[in-house]
Amino acid sequence: MRFLLPLLTLVSAAQALYFYVDGATSKCFFEELPKGTLVVGHYSAEEWDDRMHAWQQHSGISIFISVDEVFDNDHRVVSQRGQSSGRFTFTAQEAGDHRICFTTSSSSGRSGWLSSSGPNGGIKLRLDLAIGDSNQIESSDKGKLQDIASRVKDLNARLNDIRREQVFQREREAEFRDQSETTNARVIRWIIIQLIVIGITCAWQLSHLRSFFIKQKLT
Prior knowledge:
Family: Belongs to the EMP24/GP25L family.
CATH superfamily of the domain at 16-132: GOLD domain
Helix content: 25-40%
Keywords: Coiled coil, Membrane, Signal, Transmembrane, Transmembrane helix
Signal peptide: 1-16
Oligomer: single chain
CATH class of the domain at 16-132: Mainly Beta
InterPro entries: Emp24-like (IPR015720), GOLD_dom (IPR009038)
GO cellular component, one term: membrane
């Protein structure tokens, strides 16, 4: 089944939709694009789970994306296989219709995957297209990148501040350690000097007492 997505504006249009796919059926869209138009697409796929009675996203879903220029003998400009969610981009080299196709597959083996009894099919695919002049979209992306770069610079500045504070604290700890070692060395030196003085004093006193006792015996 083919759907037509009209080009809302020639500069920076956004189109969002979702559709259902049963089995490995391809769904294609036609978009008439001017030359030099950049198309950025974001997609995500969910599979119907009969047990949960809900749409579930899992790693077993894969999406094959192809973009062909129908005016140039179906010249393929995008051939990409991705997981259940991802992004694709291309730039129109010439003006004309472009066919954008999605082919889904799943390795879940869930019952009802190939059954047409379900009301909406087995895969729900969400698609968000940003269509516009490549310079404007790139300018928008550049603005986002600049914002991210600014945040990264702020984080780097904070990290540098933390690093400088850590270096300052280490320097203070080293200075305090040096002062403590110097103080301990002085205390030990004074203790040794005091021990030497006390030892000399004791030896002098003993010598004096000995001389005194000797004199007392002689008299």
